[in-house]
Amino acid sequence: MTPEVVDWAVVGGLRCVLGESPVWDDGTGRLHLVDITGRMLWTVDPAAGAARGVSVDRPISALLPLAGGGWLGVSGRDLGGVDPSDGTFRTLLDIPGPADLALNDAVCGRDGTVYVGSIDRTRADRARLHAVTPDLDHRVFARGVGASNGVDTSPDGGILYHADTFADTVTAYALDGHPVASVPVAHPDGLTVDADGGVWVALWGSGLLVRYTADLVPDRALRLPAPLVSNLAFGGPDLRTLFVTTGRSNGVEVSGAVFTADVGVRGLPPARFAAGH
Q: What are phi and psi of 25, to 5 degrees?
């Protein structure tokens, strides 16, 4: 598949060490994201081309909007409230497990459940994908995971898509945890689902985004000017703008930037987690 030529723009002037977890806030017209390694929480105003950052008191790997306003963050083995004004983190739930298996990417699915996975850097496949309900009950959704990365649900909330970077696979699960489809993907990182059910996957190290159909057949590829493509989200007016986060690479001046383009597809608004309900 030949990658498409896309006129990418750089927004906000950011150069993250490891940009991740972009989330669009339609109410404010802002994009929120984290720089995991740089320990920063960023708010980007695309209309003004400006970004505001605050340092966080512990590394945050994922950011999710809450139904009552505010933000839920993932850090270590904890889920907690994040204050975007000063970067403080207040733990709401500690998910049991080995301390070396830190949690990573997360999403509130369109079924109202938070899906969050861990990484086993020993490559012994000890990591897990967890499901957390609004009353903060949690269960293991999938076992034998290497490096849990991008997660999102289908438009109707009935299928969960999950990227395992170490296994080089993207898997579609029914909500009972049964895999229904899987496809080999080279170093998949973040992913998002569009309004037509297409699954967009960031390929770490290759400078590529690949869109798959709902049953995981590849149908488009887009190349970016930075190799460490980490995650992506739709936002902007009518959710027709694709925002892509990247990591910093030596010798690549635009690496670490947030890239944006209209790719002719509409996204879905992020689901908000109704914690405590």
A: -110, 100
